[in-house]
Design brief:
heterodimer; A: 829 residues; mainly alpha; Serine Threonine Protein Phosphatase 5, Tetratricopeptide repeat; 5 domains; 35 helices; elongated; B: 187 residues; alpha/beta; Alpha-Beta Plaits; 4-stranded mixed β-sheet; 5 helices; 6 strands; RNA-binding (chain B); mRNA splicing (chain B); nucleus (chain B); mRNA processing (chain B)
Amino acid sequence: MADYDRRDGGGYNPKKRRYRDDDDGDRRGGPRRRFDAPPHVRVRKQLLAIAENPMRPWHEEVQSIANLFTDNWDDELLRTNFVDLVLQLAVEQPMKTPFLAAVVLVANTNKPQIVDMLLAKLTSTLEIKIAEGDWRDVKLYLKLAGCLQSCLEGDGVFPVLEELFSRAVDLQTASSEDTIGTELVKIILLTLPYVMVTGPTQWQQKAADLMEKTEIIAGEAHPLQALIEPYHPEAGDQSPVASQSCISLLQTQLQNEANNGWALSCLPRPWELPVEEVEQQEKIANAEKHTLPPIAIPQTVVAGPRPLFPEIYFSVYANQDVESTPPLTNIAASLIRDALVDTINVLNFNRNVTARFLIELDCYFAPRTFAARATPFDKIREIEPPKSSWKPEDVAVDAVFSQLFSLPNPEHKLVYYHAVLTEACKLAPAAIAPSLGRAIRFLYRNSHRMDLELSNRFMDWFSHHLSNFGFTWKWTEWVDNVYLSNLHPDKAFIMGAIDKEIRLSFAQRIKNTLPEPYQSLIGPEKEKDVPDFKFADDKTPFAAEGKEIAALLRRKAPEEEIEPVIERIHSLALDNNLDPLVASTDVFVTSVLHVGSKSLSHVLAAIERTKERLTDAGATSEAARTQIISSVMEYWSAHPGVAIAIIEKLLNYSILTPQAVINWAITTYAGATRGEALAKGFVYEMVFNTVVKVTSRLRQVLQKATLPEAMIDDETIEAEINGMRSLFRAIEDALFAWASGSKDEMLEASDGLGEGDGTSETEKLVKRWGERWLRVFKRRAAIEEAFIVEARKERERKAAAAAAELAAAPAQGDDMAVDSVDAAAEVTA
Amino acid sequence: MLNTRQRSTVERLDRPSAYFFNKNRRNRRHDRDHRDGENEDSNMHPEAFDDPLKDATTLYVGNLQVYELFSKCGEIKRLVMGLDRLQKTPCGFCFVEYYTHQDALDCMKYIGGTKLDERIIRTDLDPGFEEGRQYGRGKSGGQVRDEYREDYDEGRGGLGRQIQAERMREHDHKRYDDNDEQYGRLR
């Protein structure tokens, strides 16, 4: 696909595209150089581009590639390359799999050997992937095998699916928390339709038997499911749609499909030729059958490189009055989503190609599955059945959002999914932008009932997306919400999004993109690049000392010159009944920040030069530690992004501890603002980043510890784990007080107003923020605990494997064993 | 198992450009521009004409925005803004240093080619910042790229239209201290 990208010049012109990579490109009368290329190059090019051209009938393209291949059968390079390329495409561009299978089926009529070559490599690769626990690749290879079912002997892939199922049962019986078994059932259910599409009548009984078994696992809600629900509605409220796990949906959709004679109307059937080619069609049907080599599946299967979780079907187009995406009862919803999500995640190394797949989605499914590209939503409304009202753009971007809003984490960094949406919007703005607009409205409407982590992802994506498109948005439609309390979730979203926009641009510019009522949300202090230095004002206590320290820092004066000023502050503070260290810390930190106010590099250098004094202050008392954070947050209050970045660096220098940051945010600052801090995006960001820092550090240690050569002892690991646990405990305790309304500041506040019954609107809002925060960090804690369990298992497994290898080595008795014996001797010595 | 040397079926965006490997073997129309990646003028964005940013050139603003955007790919260890050699003002490129190589690759894949305040960001992997490389190498003090562009589009001033972000490769915490002296000198 991308082989042609450059030549295309980037323009999006479907008419022009039609000739782009035709193998018979001479229609254009252009240079025929391509025909000089050796067959293996031509076959590669054509296979890579298979099905991309919507103007070319599938049966023609498939036969032409198959013939070009079999006509040049003597070319050994071509033969081996073909097998490798088919297998690689199956996992790199999974939407093309049915078309690859069709080429193989046609080639089978002429050179049946190719199928045996392919199956041999397919099964040996599958075995490796199963052993490694690379479950997506397993699924994608099985999909290819499934599409080849019509040329397989006996029951074809069914025995493999049954074997996988028996593993799933073992795993689920052993532990109800098991996620591998769930994943295996998902793979089975997603392979089944591709088998059935090759010959529905022949396999009906087999399919029914298998589905009867999978029902037991797919029908039951996974215990981890509650943890990863995208919605977290308030008591008395409801999620926009009842959450359903992907496998339970699949199970019922397949059941519907079975009742419907396995119509599978969305799947392409490129091996079906038009009636006039009945002879060739018969040849395909009667071509040689091949035995699928046995696939060894180890007794114990592993979770693999990606942590597994049950998945929940998420859609931003739920509850629309028009069916612009497949309904949840239809298997198409799961099949198209699955193919898109794989494409998106596999092709993370080229988002441009991903975006093109999204826009050209309809090329890879049966004709008439979708409405015409770029049909406006209003026109979709007018479409009458049996014509499809599924809007390809909605289906495509919905798949990206499903990843962006998947818990606990999508496969790639969130910014990847931002970039895919940006790219899709750039490629086909008229088609994609309106779909995104409806998605934004849905998310905004439901943001208050979404999990808080997801609301924040929405805010982050929204501001980043707008930054790529001139910050234009129809802000007027939310204008009423500007007047809400800052504690209201909609207002909090608006404020957070505007802050993030400013961080990617600058205040004056963002102000100009907003309607008048919003402009008051951007105070004049935001337009200053460098904040005011409070000690420049002589009325500020310690103004003289502040100015003096700033001057000393600016000329990089030695420590001995600073010390006397600090001492002067201490004695002044004592005279005024202030905590001396807190007072001097505020003066000193604020001066450091002011000296480094020009850029982040400047402030880093300033911190670097003063880190000893800062570390000492932080280490001496909790009050001083808290003051460091307060000073940073106060100085940079107009630009919280900078403040957060500085806090992050102070954590790196160990001047601050994670506990101090969390304590400042959820207790000190939240207390001082009577809970309003919990509604501020940057406060959440600060706590979240700190937690991520701690947990990713622990993960690194645990991962390293699985390597026997890393020699990390249990004590080190335990200490790290305990550190993380106590951090999570502290967070939960502090948040519980807010969520339950037992926080002192809340009680005091309501006392003042004379309504201590916990029912005032403000109190309700604060409690709700507390609940939402609590859920996020409880989940993070649970996810990390699960990771610890898996890492321990992995560590034991590797240690056992190493021991087994060591024990087995001397018994081998060949030349190779000598080295191992030596190695073993070394280890025991 | 599939051959790991196999090239991908689609081009990868996280490969370094040929700049550092082969400075001379470039056959493009404007071979004078040997500092930067390929020219993107042909598909420049229309917003360029009413660019609201044409006066916002302070070091601080640029620095903050770059930090905000680039940290979406991982924590940033160091940011060195490119300066005009003569005027010591920003001239449109910078070095962004991450803690891990993976973050740098992700930046190539997910940020290169997107916009930051109306300017398209072009990224390239870089073997590492050295003192002196923060200065533009053009005759006028700025980026070579800008000079070349001025030949065609006068009235754009010396400010580059695009930020060239070059990144350093993987770096571990230990080397951080080794760099301190040099780091301090950057101010």
